[in-house]
Amino acid sequence: MLNRHQLELIFAAIVFVIGAIGLYGSLDLTVGWAEDGPQAGYFPFRVGLILMVASLLVAMQAWRGRAALRQVPVADGPGARRVLGFALPVVALVAVSQWLGLYVGMALYLLGVIRFQGRRPWHVALGVALGVTVATFLVFEKWFLVPLLKGPLEVMLGLG
């Protein structure tokens, strides 16, 4: 079984690779700021840099505390359930978003997590899920003019 030191180094490496992929992909676009605002690669480039720097900091911190972290088990029974309770909905979000679009996936994810993990009433979960999804749509699609992954529902509603 992995100890916490190994897990933190693995996580840092994964985040670094994700940041590097985002940074590399943004280089096909203009990464600067123009008279009319940020160019298409502006935010992806900076997010990639932030992820890479943060992952290096996590790796350095894990390396400095390696003696203590090697003694910490990754998860016991309840801890493993908490980790899976967080990870499985995120994996479901990614899978659902591929077929139904990011906005439907986001709304379903928030609804499920708030209702079942947060144990909030249906009206609260539904309100937050729809509110955050609509706000995200307005920010990216209308204000920044950055289209995100659409699914059949958005296309049917004329949003895609």
3D architecture notes:
There is one protein chain. With 160 residues, the protein is an all-alpha fold. It has two domains: 1-74; 76-160, no CATH class. Helices cover 73% and strands 2% of the residues. It has seven helices and two strands. The chain has a two-stranded antiparallel sheet. The longest helix has 24 residues, at 77-100. It is flat. The N and C termini lie far apart (46 Å). The mean pLDDT is 91. Pfam families: TctB. Residues 10-148 form the DUF1468 domain. The chain crosses the membrane at residues 7-25, 45-63, 83-110, 122-140. Keywords: Membrane, Transmembrane, Transmembrane helix.
Strand content: under 5%
Helix run count: 7
Strand elements, count: 2
Largest sheet: 2 strands, antiparallel
Give the helix/strand class: mainly alpha
Major sheet: order of its strands?
1-2
- Which outline best applies? flat
CA radius of gyration is 19 Å
Which runs of at least 5 residues are low in confidence (pLDDT < 50)? none
Name the helix and strand elements from N-terminus to C-terminus, one letter apiece: HEEHHHHHH
N- to C-terminal separation? Answer: 46 Å
Instruction: State the helicity in percent bands.
Output: over 70%
Task: Domain count, please report it.
Answer: 2
> Mean pLDDT score, rounded?
91
